[in-house]
Amino acid sequence: MSAQKNPVSRESRPKFALDVDLADEAxxxxxxxxxxxxxGAIAPSGRFLARALAQCVxxxxxxxxxxxxxxTGPVTQALLARGVPRSKLVLVEYEKRFCSLLSKRFPGxxxxxxxxxxxxxxxxxxxxxxxxxxxxxxxxxxAPEDDRLTxxxxxxxxxxxxxxxxxxxxxxxxxxxxxxxxxxxxxxxxLAPIWLxxxxxxxxxxxxxxxxxxxxxxxxxxxxxxxxxxxxxxxxRDEFKFIEARARRAANGRGR
Length: 256
Ligand SMILES: C[S@@+](CC[C@H](N)C(=O)[O-])C[C@H]1O[C@@H](n2cnc3c(N)ncnc32)[C@H](O)[C@@H]1O
What we know:
alpha/beta, seven-stranded mixed β-sheet, binds S-adenosylmethionine
């Protein structure tokens, strides 16, 4: 008997072709050069981080799963590979070029172009059920603290009880401030750092809590490595800036 092909696992299999990876890196660098606060990174998330984020959701849970800031789609790919049906996935992306790329790359997945910090308005009329989870790659640290808190509040209001807001950060602390106000009771879980990412990242899961927020950042014995990796990432970024400036000068005929 011939082996039955499984179309779901086939279509969601990650592409590791070097040309796709390099093209995505180039898209990201361009987006970062144009607007570093929106892009938040010079490269897409690596597959270990993407996979770890996808592990935080239950694909069988009732209701859609929202992804904020999908970029070129590494986390989307991992969510599909995890078994989230395309029909349950809603992507919210600000950058027009990423939206066009995502619609070509992930047919059947709903893509909403809009501002994730204004989540309630951006998703108005889109959802028919409360989402079970929101997975965010937004560069929260580049946004004012108030915007981050408002985002979390809106996310909880949309999801209702039991929903989880999953966020990664390159920072060493929770990107949603832990001294959150009385009205936003939140339970925070910090997962182990993902070292196999450039730069290393940590995932935080936020859920509604009964009482006031109480959270202590986990002690990080590898803090020094963490900080050095971040320094290395900054140096690479500066190098890219330098190369870009030189290329621009050369293009304008003033390169020599
Ligand atoms: C750090 S990148 C992450 C991209 C991708 N998820 C990954 O892991 O490689 C941040 C993404 O968030 C998007 N973004 C930033 N601000 C946004 C906003 N206010 N609303 C929606 N998307 C936003 C950026 O365009 C970018 O695609």
